[in-house]
Design a protein that fits this description.
The complex is a heterodimer of chains A (413) and B (323). Chain A is α+β, with helices and mostly antiparallel strands and 413 residues long. Chain A folds into 3 domains: 196 residues, Rossmann fold (3-Layer(aba) Sandwich); 89 residues, Translation factors (Elongation Factor Tu (Ef-tu), domain 3); 103 residues, Translation factors (Elongation Factor Tu (Ef-tu), domain 3), CATH 2.40.30.10. Chain A contains 8 helices and 21 strands. In chain A, strand 10 and strand 11 form a beta hairpin. Chain A starts with 11 loop residues before the first strand and ends with a strand. In chain A, 51% of the residues are buried. Chain B is α/β, with parallel strands linked by helices. The interface between A and B is large, with 90 and 79 residues. Bound molecules: guanosine-5'-diphosphate.
């Protein structure tokens, strides 16, 4: 069968996370993006029209398009991270819609962890509030490559340039756009009401931003997920290491080190069902064959020989705590880092980040939704990078032994 | 040797800097989605392990099988394939299932709703609107516990329905198979927590981030075979609630529901009793992809009677342990 040539085929994937306080218009903005990129189909639109009438909204409430669960529909609030998809000829977008109220930190950190872009919504009438600052801090803590400040409800302030400038000035380094999600100004089309704004409308901007380019600039990292040993007649001696490239580029012949052991070897081949590759890079899932015989199993990290991560028995990390019971020194947890899980003990909690001000304060424990600096002692060695160098090999989750729940997220200092 | 997607080769963009110093690889979105799905397969096969792939005979299953094959090649994927057989299947889907499983050399487990009804464990619905949809859930849960599976791969996508938009890649199920939307494990940095206790299992959804169009484009790109049901063909149908259903022994027709012949295709393949057909002349993959790209009705709204019952239909069934 001949492959079909469609323009979508060469489009890339961009991951977007949204953040905003309740009522800033986040759901409306997402609804509009979906609508204007043709993702809202007739039956969905009709269902929303129907529901808007039932609720007594005087207009088609686009926010209803994205309200997922029954409890949320009833309460009119968003509880959990929801994922939305839209596509243009250039790109496919995965949008993590994170709610702004309770559980905000946990949800936003979750949505932001994989994002290339954060959209921070600000209600033009209210200006920058504490929550907007919190969202900006979390975005920078998680090192989301791009922050776009959406100054929404500009129609309610007469598209006043001074209002827009005042908000934009509070986010140096971010791209700010004056918007009306309700009416569509500067969402997909440039608004006539904002002559002072010379940048592109939101969708165009999203099509142009570079998706997390830093992944290519980093050293090669490859956490081994699974050892492939077919033991069939055809592939009798085959032994391949399956995983997803977590950063950098690898080519056959490249010198690599197998961690935590430290053996040095070369990559013999990069295998896929579709044939051998000349090179592999983030985010491709491939299988590496290595020269020589090695004792490598799941949990090992294959890394570029000229730029190695540190092999450590102790970690200092910024942890976002996600469980009801506070995290205290002495706590025993499991840490899942890349493809390895080891036991860990909290040595100390040094300080807590005030996500509203960005300031640090002394702390003895971390409560639910707190972010703080934690020192962990590990039962076995891990090969870890600083989070600033690699979002995959520089991050981990903390798992509670008794419940198996994911109770924390950490970024290696 | 190949570029990762055969041809055309990916363009390397210098980002304005000198070539070679900074090279940003442009990965087509389908390859990024493929890589993500493969990562999920490998991760879940390792933790919690003891997995099974749920196969429905539809296009999402065909894609799942392909991705499982890629994830462990040149070895066979390390889990069996399981079909929850309602006994009301399209024969084309069963024929397709058996052939694909044989080609892959995989082990097939068939868990039968009909047998559970014969045993008296379950009671069949009767009447013109009878469906075995709900009966699939207990059969699935029993099969999972009988075999001691700790993980079940499914083809669900978040774009299918609003409740699904919030489900994780790994959806954790208690002893009763129930899904608690408020107690989901956060998934950060693509890191999956597959830990389960005895009696519990996870549903793993490698296609979570795919849309219907992505699935079709992937089928086309990979040249995957699908059951002929997906392409326009002449069929005896009858009309009910504004949808077309295949006339079959499994569905009792209401007075006035006349059978007529129509050129149709199916957008999803489930039970004959609850999967609707659409009028279509799209007989080839290219035509189907073009039609999907231009369509203005969602897949479920158009063809799945089971979701139309109430606004929150899917969410209710999920809480009960449905796929
Ligand atoms: N005038 C005006 N109202 C808006 C705009 N965006 C959202 N709204 C309204 O603000 C309210 C809250 O919007 P919603 O999208 O539900 O906010 P969320 O809580 O951030 O998701 C709704 O009544 C919207 O119709 C806008 O750009 N202009």
């Amino acid at each position: 069968m001949a492959p079909v040539d469609t323009p979508q085929r060469t489009s890339e994937l961009l991951r977007v996370a949204t953040a905003g306080s309740v009522d800033d218009g986040k759901s409306t903005l997402i609804g509009r993006l979906l609508l204007e990129t043709g993702q809202i189909l007739e039956d969905q639109y009709e269902a929303v029209e129907r529901a808007s009438k039932e609720r007594g909204d005087g207009y088609v409430n686009l926010a209803l398009l994205t309200d997922g669960l029954r409890a949320e529909r009833e309460q009119g609030i968003t509880i959990d991270v929801a994922y939305r998809y839209f596509q243009t000829a250039q790109r496919k977008f995965i949008l993590a819609d994170t709610p702004g109220h309770e559980q905000y930190t946990r949800n936003m950190v979750t949505g932001a962890s994989t994002a290339d872009v954060a959209l921070v919504l600000v209600d033009a009438r209210k200006g920058v509030v504490e929550q907007s600052r919190r969202h900006a801090h979390i975005a920078s803590l998680l090192r989301i490559p791009h922050v776009v400040v959406c100054v929404n409800k500009m129609d309610l302030v007469g598209f006043d340039e001074a209002v827009f400038d005042a908000v934009a000035a509070e986010f140096p380094g971010a791209h700010a756009i004056p918007l009306s999600a309700l009416n569509g100004d500067n969402v997909t089309e440039r608004s006539q009401s904002t002559p002072y704004y010379t940048g592109p409308p939101l969708l165009e901007l999203l099509e142009e931003l570079e998706p997390a380019p830093d992944r290519d600039d980093t050293a090669f990292r490859f956490p081994v997920q699974w050892v492939i040993r077919p033991m069939s007649d055809e592939h009798h001696d085959y032994r391949g290491y399956a995983g997803q490239v977590a950063g950098g580029t690898v080519r056959p012949g490249d010198e690599v080190v197998l961690l935590p052991g430290g053996a040095r070897t070369r990559v013999e081949a990069i295998d896929t069902l579709d044939g051998e590759l000349d090179e592999a890079y983030y985010p491709l899932s491939v299988t590496l064959r290595l020269e020589g015989e090695h004792d490598v199993s799941r949990g090992a990290l294959i890394a570029a020989a000229d730029s190695l991560p540190e092999v450590v028995r102790e970690l200092e990390a910024t942890v976002c705590w996600m469980a009801q019971a506070p995290l205290r020194p002495g706590a025993r947890l499991r840490i899942k880092h890349a493809t390895q899980t080891v036991a860990a003990k909290v040595e100390s909690i040094d300080r807590r980040l005030d996500v509203n001000s960005g300031e640090h304060e002394d702390a003895a424990e971390l409560a639910l939704n707190d972010i703080g600096r934690v020192r962990l002692k590990l039962a076995a060695a891990l090969a870890a990078d600083p989070y600033s160098e690699n979002r995959a090999t520089g991050s981990f989750i903390l798992v509670d032994d008794s419940t198996n729940d994911t109770v924390g997220a950490g970024m290696v200092a | 040797m190949n570029s990762p997607w055969g041809h055309p080769a990916p363009s390397s963009d210098g980002n304005g800097g000198p070539p070679g110093l900074r090279c940003h690889h442009r990965v087509p979105h389908l390859r990024a989605l493929e890589a993500e799905a493969i990562q999920v397969f490998r991760e879940v096969a390792a933790e919690p392990g003891k997995a099974v792939l749920l196969f429905s005979g539809g296009k999402d299953s065909a894609v799942l099988l392909r991705l499982a094959e890629k994830a462990f090649w040149p070895a066979r994927f390390p889990f069996p394939v399981m079909h929850i057989d309602t006994g009301h299947n399209f024969p084309e889907a069963i024929e397709f299932r058996d052939r694909r499983v044989a080609e892959l050399g995989a082990e097939l487990i068939v868990a039968s709703v009909a047998r559970a009804i014969e045993d008296g464990t379950l009671t069949d619905e009767t009447g013109p609107r009878a469906s075995r949809n709900r009966l699939q859930t207990p059969v699935l849960l029993d099969a999972i516990s009988d075999h001691g599976f700790r993980a079940a791969f499914g083809g669900a996508r978040r774009d299918e329905e609003r409740a699904r938009a919030k489900e994780r890649m790994l959806s954790f199920r208690d002893d009763f198979g129930g899904w608690d939307p408020k107690a989901q494990r956060p998934e950060l940095w693509g890191q999956l927590n597959g830990n389960v206790k005895p009696g519990e299992h996870v549903r793993a959804f490698p296609l979570s981030n795919w849309t219907e169009l992505d699935v079709w484009e992937y089928v086309a790109m990979e040249g995957l075979e699908l059951p002929p049901l997906y392409f326009a063909h002449r069929r005896e149908v009858f009309s009910r609630d504004g949808m077309l259903y295949a006339a079959s022994d499994f569905v009792e027709r209401l007075p006035g529901e006349e059978v007529f012949e129509e050129t149709v295709r199916f957008r999803t393949v489930g039970d004959m009793s609850c999967t609707g057909a659409v009028r279509s002349y799209a007989a080839t993959l290219e035509e189907v992809v073009a039609e999907i790209a231009a369509t203005n009705l969602t897949e479920r709204g158009e063809t799945r009677a089971d979701d139309r019952v109430t606004e929150a239909a899917m969410e209710d069934r999920k809480r009960d342990g449905y796929f």
